[in-house]
Design brief:
Two copies of one chain form a homodimer. The first copy, chain A, contains four helices and seven strands, in the order H-E-H-E-E-E-E-E-E-H-H. By secondary structure, chain A is an alpha+beta fold. Strand 3 of chain A pairs antiparallel with strand 1 of chain B, so a sheet runs across the interface.
Amino acid sequence: MQHSRSGGAAGGVATTETDNLIASDKVEGTPVYDTGGERLGSVYNLMIEKRSGKVRYAVMSFGGFLGIGERYHPLPWEKLTYDPALGGYVVDIPHERLQAAPSFARDETPWRDPLYGESLHGYYGLPFPRI
Amino acid sequence: MQHSRSGGAAGGVATTETDNLIASDKVEGTPVYDTGGERLGSVYNLMIEKRSGKVRYAVMSFGGFLGIGERYHPLPWEKLTYDPALGGYVVDIPHERLQAAPSFARDETPWRDPLYGESLHGYYGLPFPRI
């Protein structure tokens, strides 16, 4: 993920963000936009690789946008770019790719499948990271 | 951080944890114990390096334990080990080291100091990671 300096942050932000670091509970709930500035949804949570401590996926909640309904779309972390002007993340993924992307309902357990992560990276055309 | 297989997880856990991945909002609030199994507090949030996507610190809330009061103690992620039997993280740090460790109150902004992270790693005897 790329981040720009947020500059002129309000008081509440000061304890949870620096130029280099950002707090997990600040990322959760942050809005996500397409490259045209249209709001797609927000970050639901982050999936972190236990051993390396690396964030692998930002799980997006699209909240019904694009007719997707209340489903969760895990995006490889590298696909998100922070835009300080928008105050949210931008994903450069066409709507139809997002609509057809791997996603799950609240009661589904896709992470149980050991190949799920690999399929996500594959879908977004990214190499699957080997630790 | 080290994690062990949690095994026999309840339904609610299934969507937020695998053998390799764990959800950020599951880590937040997870209890933290000393090596004797005494509860010290809980994880308040995680500080993530924006560019690399790596979790650098788990910020502990000690909630008054050890006479520390309501302060936040950032611990390098490597210092936490997950214990499935306890259902929480264990830190192998003597109480007096924790009591004297770098910490901040809710209204303080330590992360603004570009050398803060380096001082944290130094305090806990760990090399500061260069990206």
